[in-house]
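Sample pair:
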Amino acid sequence: MKDSKKFAVIGSPIKHSLSPKIHQIFASKLGIEISYQALPIEPEEFEASVEKLFDEGYDGLNVTLPLKELAYRYADKQTQESEMCKSVNTLWKEGSSIMADSTDGRGLLKDLDDKRVDVLDKEIVILGAGGSAKAIIPSILKASPKRITICNRTLSKAEMLAKEYVSLKIPIEIIAMTSEPDLRPDLVINTTSAGVLNQGLEIPNNLFTTDTCVYDLSYSRIETPFLQMAKKFGVKRSYDGLGMLVNQAALSFAIWTKLVPETDIAKDDIL
C-alpha cells in the first residue's frame, strides 16, 4: 500500500502554477499525505510523458496550456462536460482506462455561487473566444442564463465557438470588441489575458453599468487591469479568478481522492 498519493500538473510554461500549493493546503486540512509537482511538458512529448507518469504510479494529473485539447483526445473516456468543451484539465486511471474531465466551468460556477452572483436567466457577456471561454461556456449554459453574448476581436472565431452550442436552446450572440452593444449585461466575464500580458484592453462601448457584475478569469496579488478598468466605469461588484482556480482544483482533488476539501483559503496563503 502506498503511503501517499502522487499528483502533478503538466503544461508549458508551468513554473508559475499555484496548483501544488493549493493541493497541499487541501491535503493538510484533511490530514492526509500527498505529493504534487509541477512538471514542464511540451505538446510533442505529451503522450509518452503521460503514459510514463501513470506507469510511475501517479494517481492523477492536472493539465494546463497548451495540453488541454491533446489530453481530451488522448483519454479513453470523457465526461459529458468535457465532451462539450473538447478539452480537459483532469486525468486519472480507472483500471486500464484513462479518464478525463473538465472542472474549470464548474469551478467558476461554484465561485460565483459562493459570491452570490446569479446566472439563472441573466444576460451574460463573455470577452474572448479562446480556450478559456470554451472551458466555461458549457457549465454556464447548464445554469440556464437568459442569453450569452460572445465578444471577440476576430468574429469568425467567436462564430465557430457559438456554432458548437446551437442545439442547447440558450441564445448565443456574437459582437465585435469595437461595437456598441444594445444590451445591459448582468455579468461580464473576461476570459482574455490581454490586460495581464500588457497588450491593452479593448472592450465594447457602454458595456458596463453600475449594476453590472464583472469577473476576470485572471488573478494577481493586486487588482487586475480589467477589474481596474471596470471600476473606472462605476462597477461596484468585481472579482478575479482566484476563487475559480481553487474551486476547480477542489473538484479535481475530490475526483482523485474521494475527499471533498475546504475551499475557504486566504488569498495570502496562495499568492
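The longest helix spans residues 242-257.
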